[in-house]
Amino acid sequence: MDLTPGGTHTGHRLMLIGDHRVFYYGLLGRPAIRNFGCATLYVADQAPLNVDLGDGWQAQHLAWVPPYTPHRIRSRDRHLAVVMLEPEYTDTEGAGLCIHDRLMTDPLALKARVLAGVGRLQQAASENRLSDSEFDDLLFGQSLPRRTLDPRVSRVVDHICEYTAEPCGASDLAELEGLSLSRFLHLFKAETGVCLRKYRAWRRARSLLYHVRSASTLTDIALETGYPDSTHFSHSIRRIYGLPPRDIVNGSRRLRIRVQVPAAETPVSARAASSRKLVTSRTAMV
């Protein structure tokens, strides 16, 4: 099976989704400005990508985009690979330096390794869960540096990730950690680099990935992911992904999905994982 650059084909479209990392190989579409809350590595399939980080278009085979960086991307190929790394769990500045070094020494080798990950993930048993370090080794040949947050902020981040769709005000989160509202908001931004509202908007938009193969209507998906209505849902998804929700769902029809459920689940994560399984039970590994 040829899985070198250019050897992939539509039957290998896939997305592996975990709490800390996402790997995607599939359609790009024609997105407008995107603004992900994660660090993103775009990898061209064959022809170079055209990438604009705000300073003009550049042709690149691999493009590294830091978290919360507005950008535009175009591809002459139908497919590309995307690696998404959440900055609350990975030192994305350190990871960016590691990847930059690889790009300076042998970018085509890194491109080939990432694209070959499509085949390796397809061949892996669906019940196998990759740890973060295994994910990194599969795609990069090394573990990326981890990030350590203040324990109070770390617990709040975990809580938001587990209960993305549930309403929980900033004052409630502050109370969970025994902090005043002002102290909590200051600490959260100092640790993560973004305000709480912006972080929650990203995590909620990110949760759409669990639903792209759902049989639910877009209105139902909006409610299931915590949006008050389909108008707010469409506006938020467009602002972050650069595409309307309908285009994302339509472009995922032939996508094979693997959801990474935590290996050792606490009662909280078990409940969250259970809800994800309900979404993916009809769709995963199709």
Automatic annotation (TrEMBL):
Keywords assigned: DNA-binding, Transcription, Transcription regulation
Domain of life the protein comes from: Bacteria
Pfam families: HTH_18
An example molecular function term from Gene Ontology annotations: sequence-specific DNA binding
GO biological process: positive regulation of metabolic process
Domain HTH araC/xylS-type intervals: 154-251
Keyword Acetylation: no
Chain segments annotated as transmembrane: none
Protein name: AraC-type DNA-binding protein
